[in-house]
Design a protein that fits this description.
The protein has about 525 residues and is mainly α. The protein has a domain of about 325 residues. The chain contains 24 helices and 4 strands. The strands form 2 sheets. The chain has a two-stranded antiparallel ribbon. Helix 2 packs parallel to helix 18, helix 5 packs across helix 7 and helix 20 packs parallel to helix 22. The longest helix has about 40 residues. It is globular and about 70 Å long. The two termini are about 35 Å apart.
Length: about 525
């Protein structure tokens, strides 16, 4: 293609089709992904010098195998999260948790903020890989938020914790690739979290107050009754209580503990502070006064999550157990394509084990267990096709070289403004791969070479990559599909992206400005 502008447009076409289809035309993720895949296969190979024979005999089947294994890996997480949700529903534990949240703070909207922010961040720091949004979204629906908004809040809330998600996996992987200190890479990412943290927490606070539903009906009167100064103060307090321990642990210990302990310590400080300064209004109090208490105790109701936390901490922080579980891995290879599935170490296995043990604690009947497993399996059927198509598209684009080539073009055209756009490369990597760790694998070496070529310091741009990869989680179709599956919004993924895309663009821009300041 003679025109570089048209060539870049062709490289961007798959993403444009997905965004326009899901947001503008309200297509389902399956439809948008399938059309984008067909157009990519029809147009890009000839532009990139790949023969049709190579596509048919090598790239497409190899990518399909990779996509199948990745889909199974993600569906394993969704299945475990759904089993726990349906078990909680069948045993009455969800009602008990609602009562617990009401006792945690008398205003359910404050409890909603606690779940969307601190609980999501904690689960991201502990387990990662989509677990946090999949668990938080059903909680938020049970707390009084409509399903689409529950997914939006869960995706917003967990995204900052992805920087050090799954006990620091994205940064640890980056360290292994580049042979840099984990501690220095963690410190490089921290400055990006502060402005983003305040924006996210304040936005979450506003949406938690405005979109709370009173006995199934929207609280339209609360839109006028919510004072902006009150929202800003509460959101800022939520951000500060998380970011302070998050920063200290990142600076002192490295990437393993910031998200995990930042959420625990920050959540405790937040609830303690809010109990003294925030009171529910008359309408909310009337709902609380009429609420009936559940007969199930708090410890039984929380059993799946407490067991999951214990399993995650033991398997992630005890080196001998971690190495042993990671050694139990299924691996495959075909014509240079390869993949693996660490089934014993996988978050989905932890979720299912927590489900089984919690069923014993809660004394679930065989019929309740059977219904939970059956309902979870049926729900998976509705999301598996969309998930596979989106992952297949990402793997084909990766193996065609379209992703790396697009990154090189962006770096060449932006010149001195490259630090601003380095964040967007991280976002792009996660949008395509569905994983901040994969984004760091894909683009960390590129970010390092781009820093050298543009005369910029390396570590701020590597921090920008980690931050951008985390923010990209909220717009990745894989994650939207996975979180939406737990609250039954198949086909409405575009409505979720209408909220998450503007927020991701805002946070990426803020991160880009931060990167420019740091490199200067």
């Amino acid at each position: 293609m003679d025109s570089p502008v048209l060539f870049i447009f062709a490289l961007c076409m798959p993403f444009i089709v997905i965004l326009v289809g899901m947001i503008g035309l309200r297509w389902s993720a399956l439809k948008a992904g399938f059309i984008s895949f067909c157009m990519s296969v029809a147009v890009l190979p000839s532009l990139l010098g790949v023969s049709l024979h190579g596509m048919a005999s090598d790239i497409v089947p190899g990518s399909a195998l990779e996509s199948l294994i990745t889909s199974i890996s993600i569906l394993w997480i969704i299945f475990g999260a759904l089993c726990i949700f349906y078990l909680q529903q069948a045993t009455g534990a969800l009602k008990a948790i609602q009562d617990l949240l009401a006792r945690l703070h008398p205003d359910p909207r404050v409890s909603g903020l606690f779940v969307a922010w601190f609980f999501s961040l904690f689960m991201e720091g502990a387990a990662g890989f989509g677990t946090s949004a999949a668990l938080a979204a059903p909680f938020l629906v049970a707390a009084g938020y409509r399903p689409v908004m529950a997914v939006v809040l869960a995706l917003w809330g967990h995204s900052l914790g992805v920087m050090f998600g799954a006990v620091g996996t994205p940064v640890i992987t980056q360290s292994i690739l580049l042979q840099h200190s984990e501690l220095l890479l963690a410190q490089a990412a921290v400055p990006f979290a502060w402005p983003a943290g305040f924006v996210l927490a304040i936005a979450l606070c506003w949406f938690c107050f405005v979109h709370y539903q009173h006995q199934g009906a929207p609280l339209t009167t609360h839109r006028n009754g919510v004072h902006r100064s009150h929202v800003v103060a509460m959101g800022s307090f939520a951000a500060l209580t998380f970011l302070l321990p998050f920063t200290l642990f990142a600076i002192w210990t490295g990437p393993e503990l910031p998200s995990l302990l930042g959420a625990i310590l920050g959540g405790s400080a937040f609830i303690l502070g809010m109990r003294f300064v925030s009171k529910p209004d008359a309408m909310i109090k009337s709902e609380l006064d009429t609420r009936t208490e559940s007969s199930m105790g708090a410890m039984k109701a929380l059993a799946p999550y407490l067991i999951l936390i214990a399993l995650v901490l033991v398997t992630r922080l005890e080196p001998s157990i971690k190495v042993y579980l990671q050694s139990m891995t299924l691996m495959w290879q075909w014509r240079g394509y390869s993949g693996s599935f660490a089934y014993a170490y996988h978050p989905g296995t932890m979720l299912l084990l927590a489900f089984v043990l919690a069923s014993l604690v809660q004394r679930a009947t065989p019929s309740q267990l059977g219904r939970a497993i059956t309902n979870a399996a049926v729900r998976l059927l509705f999301v598996s096709a969309a998930l596979f198509v989106m992952i297949l598209l990402s793997r084909v684009l990766l193996h065609l070289g379209a992703i790396a080539l697009l990154g090189e073009y962006v770096a060449a055209f932006t010149g001195a403004a490259w630090p601003f756009w380095s964040v967007w490369i991280g976002v792009l990597g996660t949008f395509i791969t569905g994983s901040a760790t994969s984004s760091n694998i894909l683009f960390s070496e590129f970010q390092q070479s781009a820093a050298h070529a543009s005369g910029n310091p390396t570590f701020p741009l590597l921090g920008a990559q980690t931050y951008g990869a985390a923010i990209g989680n909220m717009i990745c179709p894989h994650n939207i599909i996975a979180a939406g599956a737990t609250v039954n919004i198949q086909g409405q993924e575009g409505q979720v992206m209408r909220f998450t895309l503007p927020m991701a663009a805002l946070l990426a821009s803020i991160g880009g400005i931060t990167a420019m300041v740091l490199t200067w």
